[in-house]
Amino acid sequence: MIPTYGLTHIGLAVRDADRSFRFYERVLGVRAMYREPGMIQAQTPGSHDVIVFEEDGRKIGKMQGVTHFGFRLKDPKDIERAVEAVRDAGGEILESGEFVPGEPYLFARDLDGYRIEIWYEKSEA
């Protein structure tokens, strides 16, 4: 076994890298780590993740076996703020509720059609 930080990287084919970056910036506070024409690498604050927005018109919004990707909340009370942030950024809420009492979630669609999840899960630690 090799030690890692876990699953930390996703590349998304998008129509417009700047437009997609702004959506995730408004919803999750991502910051650009690297830019070049047609591509932006971003990271959510305080994490080791990387989201790459790559302009590629042939693959936009096609999950091809991936059903969704998610962002875990630090505080369950932030779920309503997440709903508002997704809507304010132009995304669509698909579903919301609680998996079990005290563990809220939402599924949303971003501007390129990707299905994202924002949820809270109690830690065993």
What features would you highlight for this structure?
single chain, 125 residues, alpha/beta, 2,3-Dihydroxybiphenyl 1,2-Dioxygenase, domain 1, four-stranded mixed β-sheet, 8 strands, 36% strand, globular
Report on this structure.
- By secondary structure, the chain is an alpha/beta fold.
- The protein has one domain: 2,3-Dihydroxybiphenyl 1,2-Dioxygenase, domain 1 (Roll), CATH 3.10.180.
- The chain is built from 2 helices and 8 strands, in the order βαββββαβββ.
- Strands 1-4-3-2 form a 4-stranded mixed sheet, covered by helices on one side. It has a 4-stranded mixed sheet with strand order 5-8-7-6, with helices on one face.
- A hairpin with a 6-residue loop joins β3 and β4.
- The longest helix has 12 residues, at 17-28.
- The two termini are 22 Å apart.
Topology, element by element:
Elements (H helix, E strand, L loop, with lengths): L8 E6 L2 H12 L2 E6 L2 E5 L6 E6 L13 E4 L6 H10 L3 E7 L5 E6 L5 E5 L6
Parallel strand pairs: 1-4, 5-8
Antiparallel strand pairs: 2-3, 3-4, 6-7, 7-8
